[in-house]
Amino acid sequence: MSAPASKNPATLHDVAREAGVSLATASRSLNGSARKVNEAYRQRVVEAAQRLGYTTNLFAQAVAKGSTTTVALLVADIADPYFSSIAAGVIDAASEEGLVVTIAVTGRNAQRELDTVRALRGQRPRVMILAGSRTTGSAFEEQLRGELSAFEDTGGKVAFISQDASPFATVLLDNRGGARDLAVALAGLGYRNVAVIAGPPEIMTAEERLDGFTEGLAEHGIPLPPERIIHTDFTRDGGYRGTQDLLASKAPVDLVFAVNDVMAVGVVSALRDAGIVPGEGIGVAGFDDIPTVRDITPALTTVRIPLEDVGRRALQLATGTAYDGAQKDAGDGPAPIPTETIIRGSTPQR
């Protein structure tokens, strides 16, 4: 015997027939039309849709209206608390505007980022937010900007969380200034033999933080020789391996600065595994103030970025609900989000 044919899903025509109204009335009742529908008719349509198990065809709405009610958020690594905190802010702000967030992971791969943007354009999201550092010398950056410009030309909105990405809306992070302030504070605590576990040199965020930290040390006459700068992956394991390489070099070090907190967690683990007590033997500092670093032992000195606020602001900039003047500085460019140096137990006074 052949299997019974599966029941076809209810259509808008079925709902209109069930409710005894025109197709146009059924559509306006269910699809959020600006044209008002008599409340009694609207209720009949809603009840008919529920009885029939009808669900709105969001893709058809997107074709008709030019966009969906979705926000596409592109992150490098959703397992990284930096990006998950930003995502929480985006989701919170989106919910206030009746929007739904979908998340795509790029893995810090420029071609994958470009391919993802191209795929997402076909789904017609209302907003795309790119939350990840830009890379220098990327062969795909010009193509990416072309895709995003075409997306905006058809009514979409774009926001970046990173370096200035004009002409697109940008939530600019003060990586250089925050790292400089951290270096000045650590120099004031007595640290002199400093090493940096940096990310890949092509990642602009890592280089900005390295440059700012070097600048702050120089203000106190503290050198940062090349052999004490270890370039490694922008991950916990990268921080661990970079610290192993640093210790193997036998360079005299009393402080390790990792250019993000996830890497700093790897630094702490590598020091412990080498028999060195973090904070007591060698101080450790990071950048971002992800929630994790408040609970490790010792608690991590870092630079605080209000990550959830950053996510909220990106969504609000893209949808036009943020105060536009707040994003400008004296030069009419995007003003960076303020940072704060947080001194904790991982960097006691020397």
Describe this protein's structure.
This protein is an alpha/beta fold and 350 residues long. It has helices at 12-19, 23-30, 39-52, 58-65, 81-96, 110-123, 141-153, 175-188, 204-218, 236-248, 261-273, 307-319; strands at residues 70-75, 100-105, 127-131, 157-162, 169-172, 194-198, 229-231, 255-258, 283-285, 302-304, 340-342. The protein has a 5-stranded parallel sheet with strand order 2-1-3-4-5, with helices on both faces. It has a 4-stranded parallel sheet with strand order 7-6-8-9, with helices on both faces. It starts with 11 loop residues before the first helix and ends in an 8-residue tail after the last strand. The relative contact order is 0.12.
